Amino acid sequence: MDVTQVSIVIPTYKRPIRVIEAVRSCLNQILPPYEIVIGDDSPDTVTEEAINQIISTTSIPIRYIRNTPSLGQVNNVNNLFSNAKGGSIMLLHDDDLILPESLSTLTAILANDPTISIAYGRQYIINEQSEIDPVSSISFNKAFYRDAEFEGSILTPFEAGLSQQIPNNGYLIRAAVLEKVRLRSEANDGCDFDFGFQLGKAGYKTYFINKYLGMYRLSAQSISSSKTSDMASQAFRLIRDCAADTPRAKSIRAKRMLERAPIAITEYAIRGNRKDAFEIYFSKWYRGRIISLGGAKRFIQILFPSIFNR
């Protein structure tokens, strides 16, 4: 299949203004996409009307799929993967953007090396007004092993998935891979991390290019900021139960466990799951922080979650 024929798939839910911004960033590519496919879980027709307006302004095929009833995040994305016709596929979240050279850069990587299954670059951090935060962008990418030291296929596939070097969107993946690996509903809000993790476990070779190709929006409406999210606890469970096979993978695993532990405790506490919350609280991944303000707060939160759920 021709990897230069890119299907960009965009799942959306009640974000008509944001999804139009996302689509426009796709239309503004040096290498135009083969098609854009939008899966809409919204309960109204506002997004559909907005998409229909932009369809009339471009010769690039835009296919709109209205999901009635709503499919939910995992099934919406998987349905988009199934409907995509290109030789390579890019998932783009409805509130994020890609830079003009994104497709031309990533397709060149896949076209030049048939052993590469998935390619991606750096992401700018942007706010609600689409303004770039340069300082946060540097630290964000460094935290996910996206800097000059790790350019290319330096990380093993497993390390790339475990570390989340594979981003949650904005990557380019061969369509053939998606016939074997999909998002899993049991991962709930952690489905994006789980997807990259499963790709890594399966050994699909990755390539990171040390270049800004996308924009990742931090907003109050994002899943990661939701009080009902189980993103961190899902990731903690996956990382805890995996076997790291290299010294670097062991180091990455320990780092991620320490990072996820406090958030996972909070998520379990909010949902009233005291058993799992206390298990992490007294584990080596959090034990050293028990005697602290954060430790005291989480202990109270586990015992009296209703105080924090108001």
Output the keywords.
alpha/beta, Spore Coat Polysaccharide Biosynthesis Protein SpsA, Chain A, 2 domains, eight-stranded mixed β-sheet, 42% helix, globular
Task: Explain what you see.
By secondary structure, the protein is an alpha/beta fold. The protein folds into two domains: 6-225, Spore Coat Polysaccharide Biosynthesis Protein SpsA, Chain A (Alpha-Beta Complex); 231-308, no CATH class. Helices cover 42% and strands 15% of the residues. The protein is built from twelve helices and eight strands. The chain has helices at residues 16-27, 46-55, 73-83, 102-112, 134-143, 157-163, 191-201, 231-241, 247-270, 274-281, 293-303, 305-308; strands spanning 6-12, 35-40, 62-66, 88-91, 97-98, 118-126, 172-174, 206-217. Strands 3-2-1-4-7-6-8-5 form an eight-stranded mixed sheet, sandwiched between helices. Strand 1, helix 1 (16-27) and strand 2 form a beta-alpha-beta unit. The longest helix is centred in the last third of the chain and has 24 residues, at 247-270. It is globular. It starts with 5 loop residues before the first strand and ends with a helix. The mean pLDDT is 94.
Q: What is the domain tally?
A: 2
Number of strands: 8
Overall 3D form: globular
CATH superfamily of the largest domain: Spore Coat Polysaccharide Biosynthesis Protein SpsA, Chain A
User: How many individual helices?
Assistant: 12
* Low-pLDDT windows of residues: none
Specify the CATH architecture of the largest domain. Alpha-Beta Complex
Strand content is 15-25%
- Helix fraction? 40-55%
Mean pLDDT: 94
For the largest beta sheet, what order do the strands appear in spatially?
Answer: 3-2-1-4-7-6-8-5
Distance between the termini: 53 Å
